[in-house]
Amino acid sequence: MLKVPDGAPLSFAANGFLLVESVFTAEEMAACKTAAKELVESTSGPSGVHVWMCDNIPVRFASVSRDLRMAAILRPLIGPRIEFLSAKPVFKSPSVHFASPWHQDQAYWGGATKWSAWIALEDATTENGCLRVIPGSHRRKRDHASVRDARGFTNRVSDDELEGETIIDVEMKQGDVLVFHDRLLHSSHPNRSGRERWSFIPTYRNADVPDTSTVWNTSKPMDTPGRHSPTQPKEK
């Protein structure tokens, strides 16, 4: 059974993120990576990002997003009624290797608070492009510059504005999960490894809080009748 770290809500409230180790198995994550490569690698374009809304996501990845282990992590942070909104497989490779700029996700979608879970489909290191975060930065909204970027990162906070901030590199093992607030300032290292690095990122909100965001037209309740294995997904 998954054990959520003691004091997780307090840690999340202070830092804006929570790292939970060994949530999924290596077999589950390898199966997800193989499926993601087959489904989206050729269509993700220069960003290395592909978005599935909750009503058109493949069953395997819907199962990961709404897995009971994810619910066990999220409920102490969000509350008992959670809505799953969308998810995206994200990869870096020898050709898609850039560092993502500093930003808060809320700058892209607005509305009520959202929570995202960065799931490591394989090990993430400073060498292959792991995330960087600024603890406590979720406490206030930052101004973002609007820039033209063919890779899709059109809202960003410049490095100059972050002088003196504490920055943490979030290296993760395959199957680890990093949950973070949508105002947490984060970026990523470039991929200097010459190899792939895949992750999967579902996003959620509190169903009891009104949300003015127009990004999502549909949502799904987090509650599921039982655990659906990401390795052997339940058929529709």
Q: What is the name of the CATH superfamily?
A: q2cbj1_9rhob like domain
Please outline the major beta sheet.
Answer: 7 strands, antiparallel
* Unreliable parts: 225-230, 232-236
Report the principal-axis shape.
globular
Helix vs. strand class: alpha+beta
**Number of helical runs?**
5
Fill in the keyword field for this structure.
3-stranded antiparallel sheet, alpha+beta, 7-stranded antiparallel sheet, 12 strands, Jelly Rolls, 236 residues
3D architecture notes:
With 236 residues, this protein is α+β, with helices and mostly antiparallel strands. The protein has one domain (12-207, 215-221): Sandwich (Jelly Rolls), CATH 2.60.120.620. It has helices spanning 8-15, 26-40, 59-65, 68-78, 106-109, and strands at 17-20, 52-53, 82-92, 114-120, 131-133, 145-146, 155-156, 168-170, 177-181, 186-188, 197-206, 220-221. The strands form three sheets. Strands 1, 2, 3, 4, 9, 11 and 12 form a seven-stranded antiparallel β-sheet that branches. The longest helix has 15 residues, at 26-40. The chain is globular. The chain starts with 7 loop residues before the first helix and ends in a 15-residue tail after the last strand.
Fold blueprint:
Elements: H1 8-15, E1 17-20, H2 26-40, E2 52-53, H3 59-65, H4 68-78, E3 82-92, H5 106-109, E4 114-120, E5 131-133, E6 145-146, E7 155-156, E8 168-170, E9 177-181, E10 186-188, E11 197-206, E12 220-221
Antiparallel strand pairs: 1-9, 2-3, 3-11, 3-12, 4-9, 4-11, 5-8, 5-10, 6-7
